[in-house]
Specification:
The protein is α/β, with parallel strands linked by helices. It has a single domain (17-233), classed as Rossmann fold (3-Layer(aba) Sandwich). It has 8 helices and 7 strands; from the N terminus they run H-H-E-H-E-H-E-E-H-E-H-H-H-E-E. The protein has helices at 17-35, 38-48, 68-73, 85-93, 130-140, 158-167, 172-191, 199-213; strands at 56-60, 77-82, 99-102, 115-121, 141-152, 216-223, 227-233. Strands 3-2-1-4-5-7-6 form a 7-stranded mixed beta sheet, sandwiched between helices. Helix 4 links the parallel strand 2 and strand 3. Helix 1 runs antiparallel to helix 7 (172-191) and helix 6 packs antiparallel against helix 7. The longest helix is centred in the C-terminal third of the chain and has 20 residues, at 172-191. The relative contact order is 0.21. It binds S-adenosylmethionine.
Amino acid sequence: MDGDCSSTEFAVGAPSGAAGARFWERYARVYDRIWDSPLTDAVNRQLWTNLPAAGQAVDLGCGTGLSSGPLRRLGWSVTGVDQSSAMLDRAVQHGRITTALCRDAANTGLPSGRADLVLVSNLLHLTAEPVAVLDEAWRLLAPAGLLAVVWPASGATLGTALRADLRAGRAFGRSLAAAFDRLGVGLAGVRVGARAHSGAAVADVVDAWVAARGAVAVHAGSVFDVECYLVVSKPGNHRA
Ligand SMILES: C[S@@+](CC[C@H](N)C(=O)[O-])C[C@H]1O[C@@H](n2cnc3c(N)ncnc32)[C@H](O)[C@@H]1O
């Protein structure tokens, strides 16, 4: 895999229960201020170049739909799945997803083998069972579909995120404001006992899972040293 995907802690985890719901509600309020940015645009450009003709996509852990928005503009229909209604509400309000489903990403209840594209972006480090999420994504995927996975790169910190924002061309004031928002979310996460897998751990899980399923790598890399991505297809349907 390209890029440095071998060691990180992000401060935010996936708390559950009432405290978790409050945490995600708070994060949803500032999510776009942090992540609706040239950095996210750069990740989306990597992911969504050379896409097949528009079809049906599923975005697992879609958040406010920042990865789905560009797909919608390309004519894709997107089912956004998230455990947080606060996140989903924003994705719907912005027209970034077609359908909102408030479910666990590892157990969506959606039909098997129908999605032309499944996205798992910045979710695996937050979930206790990343393999279960990848397996669910694989189950949803049509035989000729594509699965895109994004996760925080190793060594990513508040400092590297700030530098990445600036390198991606975000204005200094906005980059600094995003850094303070990230700090606020991180501290809120610590207060509710949030935990996250390291970028290295996620990379290991993804690599082992890809090998076990015989998934075929189509496209992989890292963006500004803070986000890693991998696009795979099912065996026998290699599109590269
Ligand atoms: C860091 S955000 C990423 C959002 C979006 N995918 C992106 O890349 O901008 C993580 C999202 O995953 C959701 N999430 C965390 N654990 C989940 C789970 N087990 N099932 C569904 N959604 C989950 C959170 O509510 C949050 O919206």
